Amino acid sequence: MSYKTTEAKFFACTQSTYLAEQIAKAYGAELGNVITSTYSDGEFQPSYEESIRGSRVFIIGSTHPGPENLMEMLLMIDAAKRASARHVTAVIPYFGWARQDRKDKPRVPIAAKLVAKMLEAAGATRIITMDLHADQIQGFFEKPVDHLFASTIFLPYLQSLNLDNLTIASPDMGGSKRAYAYSKALKSDVVICYKQREKANIISHMELIGDVTGKNVVLVDDMVDTAGTLTAAADLMMERGALSVRAICTHPILSGDAYEKLEKSKLEELIVTNSIPLRKESKKLRVLSCANLFADVMHNVHHNKSISNTFVM
């Protein structure tokens, strides 16, 4: 589908250039000209090389760590505001720092709210993002937030597999709501993994709630970081009699030795979006593009149309 507009302008943060090009192409537009100058100490300065006065500016970039990705988004928003853009929409496929959405122990920050306030202070007038780690993060903003669901992308793919005895699984208790939503759409059973952690990214114990004997299981999560939880859950389910185990995770962080864990695991495939650039390829990774989803929503936002038809869950 192709759209034409004379007002909306599209710009990419450095780490999200490839996805931004896909989104702009799906929209029927081209990326605007922005250059980044870098000082010898690592400080950088983005510069718009065309007029954006009076335009709706879409700035596309995920804010995954390192911190320069968030900083680049903030600087580009500030530059657009100071260049008299009419609307500045931050398109953030992966909203980084979202795991710190509450105080889970004394004397720690709520980083997700801090990031929300920084984006607004920089001058963002709207946020478009996908599969936040916690739905309540929308409430950290005083500006409109369009929270998209990658189920729009994943469900058609899962249906195309025509899996018998399909069962949806959540790798932890926190993801049970997401798993139940998928199971409702696919009319399947649900199982839940209960895990205990020693500390971040280290699991001390995992147990399965439900029966997976003779089932084709699909694990559902919003992100995959070290892949420890997913691979442990897949191995446990195969031990309990599952026929196959797949996983769908919106955001492929895949840090540390995640690729090695993935290759050694009993996961048949890990299905992700291109919200974050992959560090490398893997025969077990299948990437589905979210470009059309974002292009459709951005078109409707720009033309003041409803976006409710893009929500599956």
UniProtKB/TrEMBL annotation:
GO terms for biological process: 5-phosphoribose 1-diphosphate biosynthetic process; purine nucleotide biosynthetic process; ribonucleoside monophosphate biosynthetic process. It catalyses: D-ribose 5-phosphate + ATP = 5-phospho-alpha-D-ribose 1-diphosphate + AMP + H(+). GO terms for cellular component: cytoplasm; ribose phosphate diphosphokinase complex. SMART domains: Pribosyltran_N. Residues 9-123 form the Ribose-phosphate pyrophosphokinase N-terminal domain. Pfam families: Pribosyl_synth, Pribosyltran_N. It is an enzyme of class 2 (transferase). InterPro entries: PRib_PP_synth_CS, Pribosyltran_N, PRTase-like, PRTase_dom, Rib-P_diPkinase. Keywords: ATP-binding, Cytoplasm, Kinase, Magnesium, Metal-binding, Nucleotide biosynthesis, Nucleotide-binding, Transferase. GO terms for molecular function: ATP binding; kinase activity; magnesium ion binding; ribose phosphate diphosphokinase activity. The keyword Hydrolase does not apply. Its EC number is 2.7.6.1. NCBIfam families: PRK01259.1, ribP_PPkin. This is ribose-phosphate diphosphokinase. It comes from Winogradskyella epiphytica.
